[in-house]
Amino acid sequence: MKNFDDIENEVNFRKEWMENYKLKTPSYYHIERYIAKLYEVIKKYNAKTEEAQNDLIIVKHNADILNADLAGELKSDYEKRLVRYRDKWINYHEAIDNVQKRFLDIVKKDLT
Question: Residues 12-57: pLDDT tens digits?
Fold first, then answer.
């Protein structure tokens, strides 16, 4: 069984985020890898308590929605190199960060 630090390291994309944030056109593929990895880790996590299991349902659902929406407007804006892409990228990344934070909060509480 993995401990909290192992799980946290598995979904930590902070360094890559900083590198992309500095760019005029951040990488779409960074976002794609980030949500895919986060969604995979969330799906694999087996909660110990019923409360954590219930909370994970909502987090999985949110991650699934973000994962499904990824190929839509954001990818299209990236391919067309539209000016609004960078702002959307930042907003999308923040949404994924919120899912990640909520997931890690659940894991931390579940493992203590």
Answer: 776 776 777 778 888 888 888 888 889 999 999 999 999 999 999 9
**Are 13 and 101 spatial neighbours (Cβ–Cβ below 8 Å)?**
no
Residue 99 makes CB contacts below 8 A (sequence gap 6+) with 38, 42, 59, 62, 63, 66
Spatial contact of 42 and 8, defined as CB atoms under 8 Å apart? no
CA-to-CA distance for 10 and 3, rounded, in angstroms? 11
| Amino acid identity at 71 | A
17's CB contacts (< 8 A; 6+ apart) are 30, 34, 93
